[in-house]
Amino acid sequence: MCCGCRFAIVDGLADVTGRERQWAASEAARLMPVLGDRWRHVRGVVAQAELVASVLPASERPWLVAAAYLHDIGYVSELVATGSHALDGAVWLRARGRERLAGLVAHHSGARFEAGVRGLGAVMAAFDREESATADALTYCDLTTSAAGARVSVKERLTDIERRYGDGHVVRIAMSRAVPSLVEAVRRTELRLATASKAALR
Ligand SMILES: [Fe+2]
After folding, report:
1. Could you tell me the distance, in angstroms and rounded to a whole number, from the CA of residue 42 to the centre of ligand 1?
2. 191 CA to centre of ligand 1 in angstroms
3. How far is ligand 1, taken at its centre, from the CA of residue 156, in Å?
4. Residue 151 pairs with which residues in a beta bridge?
5. How many angstroms does the Cα of residue 1 sit away from the middle of ligand 1?
6. Which domains does the chain show, CATH number per domain?
7. Distance 11 CA to ligand 1 centre (A)
8. Ligand 1 mean position to 80 CA, how many Å?
9. How far, in Å, is the centroid of ligand 1 from the Cα of 65?
10. In tens digits, what is the pLDDT along the chain, a chain of 202 residues?
């Protein structure tokens, strides 16, 4: 392959991922401002994603930011169907041909555990659960952003979720099952952040 072809392919990929990010930002801005605090949370997650994206290969960064914009789109009232916002968002994305974003959104922040508690495990399994630094980073950004968009520790975020959903609530039961895998995703991302900052100091 000549150098010109290789650069053309790289530029082409950057265009595609850049377009996904732009589309995600404009759809979120169109549908989510009515959600108030939830929209503030999403913008906080996006801001966090912009920072954390530096640990990912350049081609992955727009995917993380696009997923951050749309990870809670399933809370928009017209999209609510199953009771799992992650699944409702994923179904909406699939219908728009955004299969990778659908998988990232379906499985963000251990949503499979809530789907399981709701009896939606088989529906959730129809979406690809990628095990990647990008998927880990999305969960990290969601868990380090408060319900109203402020930067918080993972412990503060999980404690707040417990406080907002009472004993016996589906979300709380699911969260208690999800915690070990969430902690692992956060740990892997923190490790990548530490490695990147060490490399930057060299
Ligand atoms: Fe979120």
Report:
1. 6
2. 22
3. 14
4. 145
5. 43
6. 3-201 (1.10.3210)
7. 31
8. 15
9. 13
10. 444 555 454 455 566 678 999 999 999 999 999 999 999 999 999 999 999 999 999 999 999 999 999 999 999 999 999 989 999 999 999 999 999 999 999 999 999 999 999 999 999 999 999 999 999 999 999 999 999 999 999 999 999 998 998 888 999 999 999 999 999 999 999 999 999 888 888 8
Residue reference for tokens 């999800």: 178
What the block records as the tokens of 4 is: 């010109």
